[in-house]
Automatic annotation (TrEMBL):
Descriptive protein name: Uncharacterized protein
Gene giving rise to this polypeptide: ga04342
Signal peptide (from-to): 1-16
Keyword Transmembrane: yes
Main location per the UniProt record: membrane
Keywords carried by this UniProt record: Membrane, Signal, Transmembrane, Transmembrane helix
Sequence segments annotated as region (Disordered): 19-51
Organism: Eleusine coracana subsp. coracana
Domain of life: Eukaryota
Amino acid sequence: MFLLLAKLNFVTTVSSKKNSMEGNVTQEQESLSPSHLGVDHESLQQPSDSGKKGGWVTFPFLAVAMMGLGVATSGALSNLVVYLIQEYNVPSVDAAQIANIVNGCLSIAPVAGAIVADAFFGCYPVVAVSMAFSLLVSTHAQTSIHRVHRVILLINSTQYPCGQSLVVFTLTASVQSLRPSPCKQPGFGTACSPATSGQMAALYAGVFLICVSAAGSRFNQATMGADQFDSPADRDVLFNWFFIFFYASAVLGSTVIVYVQDTVSWTLGFGIAGAASVVGLVGLLLGSRYYRRPAVKGSPFTGLARVVVAAAARKRTKIKVATSGESKFYHGGRSGDGDGKTSSAPTDSFSFLNCAALVTDDDIISADGSVVRPWRICTVQQLEDFKAVLRILPLWSAAIFLSVAIGVQINFTILQALAMDRAIGHFKVPAGSMFVSCLLSVVIFLGLLDRVLLPLWRCLTGHTPTPLQRIGAGHVITVISMVASAVIERRRLATVHAAEQEGNPGWVSPMSAMWLVLPFALSGAGEALHFPGQVTLYYQEFPPALKNTATGMVAMIIALGFYLSTALIGIVRRTTSWLPDNMNASRLENLYWLLAVLVAVNFGYYLTCARLYKYQNVAK
């Protein structure tokens, strides 16, 4: 399946001048061999395809694009919990829940972008246009903000919807009428004046527009990068480095921009985020002549829908799937026979669906293999594509609860940091930057994995760890991370009880917030294993027409994780007294212990799914 993308032709016509240019591209590809990336495979020492574009010459341009978008997005949203508490007087636990919903939207939006890329335009146009929206953001970020009535008109305007996202954020930070009155003790509810509906609407408008502008590029960049290579080994390395740049950019956004927001101004911080998106767009466009652009084959979901409709319509049809040749199955115009009918049967898995491709007397098939009523029958290939998706769904569902646990940990660790000593010498670490330890852990562990651990594993065992093995290891480390969070929170609360400050929501524990680095580092190591493993698994096992959607499946996992973490927090608040707005009176460690148990049970479910799963494309 990996090799199918290599057979796709360019959409544009190649002239003799372009042929000469491609010869130069081939030489550049040879000079940019990825040996410096720590890969020893012979296949990686050669250009992707000497007769076509693509290959490692595209990597620097894609890397700049990844970094620019990541810095812009993380810089705008990573400090959202603190922004809500300090500038909008939102109670602390409510702020954590809002941040989970926002992160869920930011994660689910790329799935829509992947569908659009798969069905209509391909990766490059969708990525370029989405990043161009970020350019509009930075261009309009200098708009005058002196007239509040124009602010409201700007928010309601639909002329440039995606280009207004950071404008709205900048305005909420600059115009006092778009924020409630300052609070002496922000984050503790009743003592503060809440934001009005209009003020919250302005903030949510900015969040929504950032999600829209990121939808087309966040994970389509991974698929676009994979399209540049023929070798599965090349793609595996590309996915590792995609995540390295993805998390490295988040580190920059969560440190530099968050520091500017906390110490200089929120307005300047949002402006820097817009400038980073401009750099990313320029980097992407500079590599345009080198990119391989596979042809788009139309919406892949139409074929999947045909399977469901045809199977439902024929649920009473008796099927005899045998080698006798009595049953004919529809293979479309590409089959060996001109009418598209052969006795070659579908696979036995999910055999109850095979009736969808069975040719009956009611089916009218023309000489060229096309069918008159396409929604009454599907091709065997469409049927097998649908089965491939069904096979992987249990494994996909096992990853959702990992994101639930991580989502809870991210935002509550920020609340823990606000109640702990964040000083390192004379420097006070912003609470919103604590998550950087997780991001750095991902980057470091991915590099260590690519340069040391995987080569050592290959040397000792003679083969590379499978995606399922990497994902399973990530499950185990996530359980350990939840246990570490519970132990550290128990120690923090012990200092609160010792000082008898349970009733003082503003009291800061003398315990160093640097203890929070340990669970975040463990969580990052787990992500370095299970997220790239999932991307590799889905890209390898999904049908060729669903490659963009395959990488978007990880985004959907993250989104569902954030949404479900919000639901879990709501259930815990309604049924227990663990999570009051006063963190010094909370029992947050009980929530972490609950997560550790649930993630461990989920790991057992994953092991069952992994044991039953059979790779469909491992040979390729």
